Amino acid sequence: MKKLPEIFANNRDWAGDVTRRQPGFFKRLAEQQNPKYLWIGCSDSRVPANEIMGLMSGEVFVHRNVANVVVHTDLNCLSVIQYAVDVLKVQHIIVCGHYGCGGIQAAWRGTQLGLIDNWLRHVQDVSKLHHDKLTELKAEEQQLDKLCDLNVLEQAKHVCWTTIVQDAWARGQSLSVHGWVYGLRDGLLRDLGVCISSPKELD
Questions:
Q1: Which of 47, 129, 161, 176 could pair covalently with 197 via S-S, beta carbons 3.0-4.6 A apart?
Q2: Active-site residue list
Q3: Is the pLDDT of residue 42 over 80?
Q4: Which CATH number is 33-202 given?
């Protein structure tokens, strides 16, 4: 059985580089976790949260799934949000999609991929909700990018409606929910203009 020695070599190089640049970093990291941000993003291997935001380990709490979906029955996602909000006291929840997302493409085209088709029904619901807006666009690339944007906005709204976030706001905790998109073509984040910090802003 192969043991992937190249990965362990890469790890040693990375740990050594971090230690040279920031002596004591791993000791400090081991003693506490105090991130300001929760990132809810796509599982796509091309979208690493820490690197995109220029943050080090320990600075962002991360949840990822295909097409960055937030479902009120997904106990995995809800547990991450609850721990981040109630225990870690993050100040910002970022829902971030990305252009060129395979999940978005499969949902829009109705591609049959297997079990994941059931998961992507959530994205198809978003496409049906905004069908007229999407079909106004003639090029498929534009349609996919717009669906990516709309999916982020819907999922950010879902985050806001969780009992976890609603309870945090009710007790006066400082917490903002953001909707962003990452561009694979240029490596840049785009703010979709969503920053919700209280229930009254949901309207």
A1: 176
A2: 42, 44, 46, 98, 101
A3: yes
A4: 3.40.1050.10
